[in-house]
Amino acid sequence: MVKASDAAGIKRKADNDMEDLEAVNLAADWADISQGLRKDLGHQLHSQWIKPIQLGRIDAATGTLDLFLPTEFSANWVKDRFADRLSLAWKIARSEVRSVRIGVHPGRRQVSELRLGADNRRAANDSGAINAIGADTIGDSGFTSSIGLDASLTFAAFVTGEANVLAFNAAQRMSANEKPQFSPLYLKAATGQGKTHLLHSIGHAFLQAHSRSRIFYCSAERFMVEFVQALKAGRMMEFKARLRSFDLLLVDDIQFIIGKASAQEELLYTIDALLAEGKRLVFAADRAPQALDGVEPRLLSRLSMGLVADIQPADIELRKKILHSKLTRFAPLAVPEDVLDFLARTITRNVRELCGGLNKLIAYAQLTGQEVSLQLAEEQLTDILSANRRRITIDEIQRTVCQFYRIDRSEMSSKRRARAVVRPRQVAMYLSKVLTPRSYPEIGRKFGGRDHSTVIHAVRLIEDLRERDADMDGDVRSLLRQLES
User: Fold this and answer.
1) pLDDT tens digits, residue range 436-485?
2) 268 near 296, Cβ under 8 Å?
3) Residue 47, C-beta contacts closer than 8 angstroms, at least 6 positions apart
4) CATH topology (fold) of 316-388
5) CATH number of 394-484
6) Would you give the end-to-end CA distance of the chain in angstroms?
7) Which of 26, 281, 297, 366 has minimal CB crowding within 10 Å?
8) Cβ neighbours of residue 276 under 8 Å, at least 6 residues apart?
9) CB atoms within 10 A of CB 33
10) If we measure between CA atoms, which residue out of 226, 282, 223, 287 comes closest to residue 255?
11) Where are the domains of the chain?
């Protein structure tokens, strides 16, 4: 005969097993839903708002599924914009789900209100609060302990090229001893192109040049969260006073200053107050001020009144420089030049993915004892490569080359031997070999049925001319930028 206590234990175990199975099934469904949303919304929106969602339980009585986000701000943002889409996706995936409820997990520790006292700084930083860096954090060396700043993101570690030299020089001016000619500085760049790196670099350099100064560094979302918390706690005067006591204001991802008109207004007044006192302000975003959504015109005007420095996507030459720079950390490990060239040509979306690809490749080689090779790169970086690979066609190359040299498209297949036609045709053959997976015979067929030996000769000739002729090298660089953009 089974005792009552044993029966209860068996029932609890069965219930727990059912809950575990339900959790696994929910996670599997969420993986499918999340993947679909990623395709619909794009990587950036998905990564920022959908990926952080955590699953709760389904209320059997109401059919309501709880979805949790890390902050009240992000929960409200997702609720306003994606609630209907999430609800529909879950209804399709699971018939028992009739609605979704989006909020912050009730057991989650709330982010502490901004404090500058030495006793509270560690707790504030651990909870993700606004990072305040000032004279009272300076150690015996005279340099800050860099709360909130990544020690590796300095000017010395930033690789420059045509795409980012304006932003780099402007960032250095902003952190120098002499008063900058412009403020605020607004860094505009797509994800992973280096704007956050420059923000951190400004912070480090400014503290070296002004050791007793105070820095305010945060993301726009964090600013919104802290503002709302101070407002609810009735500590707005304290919040304003501390915010305006800083000598340098660094705000990342300003595109997320949306909604809450009162928070935007406070940021506006803070900008005015700091500028009036000759202090320095730097903002970073993935779009120009005029393209920000849901931001008041007065704030847009303040953001664009200084210098808007655009960081363009890194071209192939800059990507190669960045890879060579990163390799110094792995010395004496050797990475063949053809592997670096392959990575630079293939991983084009952003610098962060480029460096991530190199790190993954080297880590795999070191952990397995294999040599870094082109074959290893193609095998181990499949996901990164497929996400970055934009299929450039020979037709596209021919069209772009003809427009560049102002010749008729028919000349790509003609038998004419005039120099004004032959050289552009050879450049197009060279680019076809560099930018497409086509073989020499396949390329020859696209150029009027020419023999593969003609294509080989063209490729070698242009390679040689690029080394000896600056004008030819400039032409090819320009065409590569056009085709890869």
Assistant:
1) 878 888 899 999 999 999 999 999 999 999 989 888 988 998 898 788 66
2) yes
3) none
4) Helicase, Ruva Protein; domain 3 (1.10.8)
5) 1.10.1750.10
6) 76
7) 297
8) none
9) 20
10) 287
11) 22-104, 147-311, 316-388, 394-484
